[in-house]
Amino acid sequence: MTTRPQARVPADTLVWLRRARDHADRHYAEPLVLDDLAAAAGMSKYHFHRMFTATYRITPAAYVSERRVERAQDLLRTTNLTVTEVCTAVGFSSLGSFSSRFRELVGETPSAFQARYAASGAPRIPGCWVFMAGLAERRTDSRTGTASQEKPCGPAPS
Predict the structure, then answer these.
(1) What is the per-residue pLDDT across 31-87, written as a single tens digit (0 to 9) for each?
(2) pTM of the full structure
(3) Residues near 1 by Cβ (< 8 Å), separated by ≥ 6?
(4) Burial status of residue 45 (CB atoms within 10 A of its CB: 0-12, 13-18, 19 or more)
(5) CA distance linking residue 99 with residue 27, whole number of Å
(6) Which residues of 65-87 are buried (b: 16+ CB within 10 A; e: fewer)?
(7) Please, is 9 exposed, middle or buried when counting C-beta atoms within 10 Å of its C-beta (0-12, 13-18, 19+)?
(8) Taking each helix axis from N to C terminus, what angle separates 95-106 and 110-118, rounded to the nearest 10 degrees?
(9) Non-local CB neighbours of 61 within 8 Å, separated by 6+ positions
(10) What are the phi and psi torsion angles at 79 (to 5°)?
(11) d(CA 43, CA 118)
């Protein structure tokens, strides 16, 4: 059996692929489609898909999905959000696709993962703090250009 030689991606293309990957990392919770990532890289979607897959050994959709599952693991470990709330917070539109992708990558269901970390007794961050912190990051005072410092609901995590 003969193996095909490794396709080499030009160095200047790597800069644009990294830009698209960084865009995916920053906007993982938003609905991302191939056109968005290709636009961030300044390429046609077909060329972008080929170059991204050749460079990172994973398709752009699988990359975004993995980032979403990684963030979901963080939220399931540290917050008191439900699995459904985590699913929507990280950008999945279907609980079924989230659960099956999570199990495929992590090896257990999101509920079992969350229960395992809940059993350790670590204090959980209230979900309202998580959502308010996310909103505060996006809200800025138009006069000063600084983020507003609103207090979220519930007691502060200890």
Answers:
(1) 999 999 999 999 999 999 999 999 999 999 999 999 999 999 989 988 888 999 999
(2) 0.72
(3) none
(4) middle
(5) 21
(6) bebbbebbbebbeebbbebeebb
(7) middle
(8) 70
(9) 34
(10) -120, 170
(11) 44
